[in-house]
Predict the 3D structure of the following.
Amino acid sequence: MASHTIGIIVNGATGRIGSTQHLANALIPIIDEGGLALGDDRLVPRLLLAGRDAARLAAVARAHKLADWTTDLDAALADPAYAIFFDAAATQGRIGVLEKAIAAGKHVYCEKPLSPAAAQGLALLREARRRGVKHGVVEDKIHLPGLQKLAALTRGGELGRVVGFKLEFGWWVFDGSEQPCQRPSWNYRAGGGGIILDMYPHWRYVIETIVGRIVRVASSAWIATPERIDERGERYGVAVEDSAATLLELEGGAFGTIVSSWATRVRRDDLLTLQVDGSKGSAVAGLHRCHVQSTAHTPAIAHFSVMRDIGADYRSGWIEAPPLATYCNPYRVGWEAFLRHVAADAPLACDFAAGIRDVAFADACHRSMRERRWVVFPPLGEEQAR
Ligand SMILES: NC(=O)c1ccc[n+]([C@@H]2O[C@H](COP(=O)([O-])OP(=O)(O)OC[C@H]3O[C@@H](n4cnc5c(N)ncnc54)[C@H](O)[C@@H]3O)[C@@H](O)[C@H]2O)c1
């Protein structure tokens, strides 16, 4: 068995998602286990943490017993020891760093969204193809156990013909006056923030993988919390939507809804739930669990009981789907797939073309909102599909 090193620049290594999911839950465990098995060989990541704040980078490096970190991204990109560039820094800087990394001949992997709009993502894809570098975008949610269980049901046809679906997501994000805001302030500013650009790229691949191809959308969005207090204790005006609702039409004629909000209090099964209704049964997935109600267990409800609360428990007729045989952290699944794609040419579903479609979905919803009408969401264009 031979061991090969692969250099990875991790940009935004001190951020919430970079330090937790990508480092602590994915790359570090791969390193600690002696690398990723590739046939008889092992591929061992060698990490260079990159970011803006030297003290915080040094602390993250120390916590993971890593030697290498830098605030000089240009020098890192010029170093041939690193074949891969990964970006998990704030969204507004993504295109700039990806352009540089592609120009430096690095294989590129990044957090979602790939770009603020699909057209910019397409320019990146063209450049990546021209340079012959591999490309990928994080599409982690589909690897959540609850959604995997639901995907198995729809894939296996157990729910019958899909007649509708609803995706609900969100929780209360404090404005910073009574409690600190739980999310970075850039999420609520123009140029990278907004719940549609933040979350809809996920909803695109979740819905198209589990339910069906999206053909039309009608969206509305609003600012529920107009003022917030930032990390420095300064009050600022929220410039982008923190709540959105969308109607979707799928190929084949089924319709569904998405409601996402940072201004809602949770009284549903989980922070994210997706219910799919079918002619033979319905299923509701949360992050980890999935409950199913078949036709045989569907109550024959005839009318409201107006005068008396009959105390019905509508949750009792649902059966929990069995646990998965194995479960791996969704971000680690993404890393393993990308590393196999780079090192062994294994196919990768979540390439830039997929990332562009994720962003194009957000684009279509923004457009529908601006123009106050249904907007067609076309299939991937020739250029992307090639
Ligand atoms: N896959 C997911 O579910 C998921 C979840 C959260 C975040 N994300 C994505 O990961 C990226 C980072 O999000 P996060 O929540 O970790 O953000 P964060 O603010 O916690 O981290 C951002 C990182 O970017 C750096 N940065 C560079 N320029 C910055 C700027 N102008 N303002 C602020 N920080 C800047 C910061 O130093 C920090 O290391 C975003 O693109 C976001 O969309 C994805």
